[in-house]
């Protein structure tokens, strides 16, 4: 009688590779990318620690979790690993300055998970880098299997939450040294309790910032539970009934893409670093606007109309002109274009405090129009047209906005961004020491020494 060959599930294939992966197998560019992502994410999180949403989440976590030994970035507090991952993940996303690509905001789910386990594992820098790469890879692959960013998110799912839990679980499982079978269980446990929807855009609710924190918490918890012996479904992605793809992405999922190029294509290389403090989809229009103003040697006062060319989703997501808080400003195309045109920047000080009372910002917002006159493919972004008072019209379509993997910011620019965010929190000397430690991460013997550098006195 012929033996029946049982094909491994998608989860088993992913866990099988990453449970066995070794640091020495990582290409140099992947190692470098992991250090860039750690630097960018933790700096954004340290700066985000002082926001209202993080204070609320941290207060709740303290009430329910006790003290623990995992550092809360940019504070003197510590919490148990799962609670620290929740708070730091929220902080990383609090100012919309964290990275993009992968599952949406992979850094804000993966990096807090890894840092939360620093004291428990006492892992060295190489193990940390490998765990970060594993987390980014799983998060990005799960989203690719969902059909990609636009098909998944346009259904109403917030992929940073839904797919990010898998990335946080993978990073945690790798750092804990889980063998293949418990690694499978960690992914299965995370996938059975993952979520996040875009309903927050209706009223600017705080939970948008909370989604990556919740995904990080879910991932750490899943790995710790698997480590303790709890089992999770090996078919969490591909089960016909109840599997992630058939439940969260029916009709649009492409499951085979979850394992395409596994071990050869590393999804951390698909993540970019933000130069602007707003939703990444708006960045191409901002780059185009700044280029037009520079090329024409004009300032905002010469602008008669701003026309954004996108699709119906562009209007649904970014058309708001009634801006009441930071989140609504960062998802308002009229606001982002207005403050960028007036100031020449889209850094955090253009959003916090809000500039809604500025007459020039009000004028520019009122003359901004978003048209649904383009068919945007999976990698397309809205374009910008500027009409000047003298009748001239300038149009720009920017395929890769600054910060994208195809148009990356330099290490020097990343250092400047990190220092700008860290220095007010840690002080100049401590901030520079922490930045230097990240760049030499592979030589670190105990990663908890580096996470301790994010604590304030």
Task: Give an overview of the whole structure.
The chain has 457 residues and is mainly α. The chain has two domains: 10-275 and 421-452, 2-methylcitrate dehydratase PrpD (Orthogonal Bundle); 280-396, 2-methylcitrate dehydratase PrpD (60s Ribosomal Protein L30, Chain: A). The protein is 51% helix and 5% strand. It is built from 21 helices and six strands. The protein has helices at residues 10-20, 28-48, 52-65, 81-93, 107-116, 118-121, 125-145, 149-153, 159-162, 164-175, 180-191, 207-228, 244-248, 283-296, 312-318, 326-330, 333-343, 359-366, 411-426, 428-439, 448-452, and strands spanning 70-71, 78-79, 303-309, 368-371, 383-388, 393-396. The strands form two sheets. Strands 4-3-5-6 form a four-stranded mixed sheet. Strands 1-2 form a two-stranded antiparallel sheet. Helix 2 (28-48) crosses helix 5 (107-116), helix 4 packs antiparallel against helix 12 (207-228) and helix 10 (164-175) runs antiparallel to helix 11 (180-191). The longest helix is centred in the middle third of the chain and has 22 residues, at 207-228. It is globular, with a radius of gyration of 22 Å. The termini are far apart. The mean pLDDT is 96.
């Amino acid at each position: 009688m012929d033996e029946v060959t049982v094909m491994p599930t998608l989860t088993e294939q992913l866990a099988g590779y990453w449970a066995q992966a070794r640091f020495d197998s990582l290409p140099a560019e992947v190692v470098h990318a992991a250090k860039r992502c750690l630097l960018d994410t933790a700096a954004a999180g340290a700066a985000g620690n002082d926001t209202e949403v993080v204070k609320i989440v941290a207060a709740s976590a303290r009430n329910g979790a006790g003290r623990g030994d995992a550092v809360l970035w940019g504070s003197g507090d510590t919490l148990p690993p799962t609670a620290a991952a929740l708070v730091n993940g929220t902080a990383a996303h609090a100012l919309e300055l964290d990275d993009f690509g992968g599952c949406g905001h992979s850094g804000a789910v993966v990096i807090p998970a890894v840092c939360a386990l620093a004291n428990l594992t006492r892992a060295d820098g190489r193990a940390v880098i490998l765990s970060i790469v594993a987390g980014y890879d799983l998060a990005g692959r799960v989203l690719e299997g969902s059909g990609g960013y636009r098909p998944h998110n346009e259904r109403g799912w917030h992929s940073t939450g839904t797919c990010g839990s898998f990335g946080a679980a993978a990073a945690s499982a790798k750092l804990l040294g889980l063998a293949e079978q418990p690694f499978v269980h960690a992914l299965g446990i995370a996938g059975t309790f993952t979520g996040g929807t875009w309903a927050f855009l209706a009223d600017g609710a705080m939970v948008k910032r909370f989604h990556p924190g919740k995904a990080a918490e879910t991932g750490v918890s899943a790995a710790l539970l698997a480590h303790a012996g709890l089992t999770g479904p090996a078919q969490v992605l591909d089960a016909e009934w109840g599997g992630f793809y058939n439940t969260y992405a029916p009709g649009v999922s492409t499951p085979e893409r979850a394992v395409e190029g596994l071990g050869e294509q590393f999804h951390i290389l698909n993540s970019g670093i933000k130069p602007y403090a707003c939703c990444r989809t708006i960045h191409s229009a901002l780059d185009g606007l700044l280029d037009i103003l520079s090329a024409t040697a004009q300032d905002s006062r010469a602008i008669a109309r701003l026309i954004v060319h996108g699709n119906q989703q562009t209007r649904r997501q970014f058309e708001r002109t009634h801006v009441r808080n930071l989140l609504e400003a960062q998802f308002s195309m009229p606001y982002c274009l207005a403050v960028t045109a007036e100031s020449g920047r889209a850094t955090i000080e253009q959003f916090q405090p809000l500039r809604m009372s500025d007459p020039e910002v009000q004028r520019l917002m009122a003359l901004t129009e978003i048209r649904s006159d383009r068919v945007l493919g999976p990698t397309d972004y809205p374009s910008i047209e500027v009409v000047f008072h003298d009748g001239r019209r300038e149009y720009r379509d920017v395929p890769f906005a600054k910060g994208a993997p195809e148009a990356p910011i330099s290490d020097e620019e990343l250092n400047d961004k990190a220092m700008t965010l860290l220095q007010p929190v840690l002080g100049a000397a401590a901030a520079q020491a922490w930045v230097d430690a990240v760049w030499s991460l592979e030589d670190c013997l105990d990663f908890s020494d580096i996470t301790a550098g994010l604590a304030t006195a």
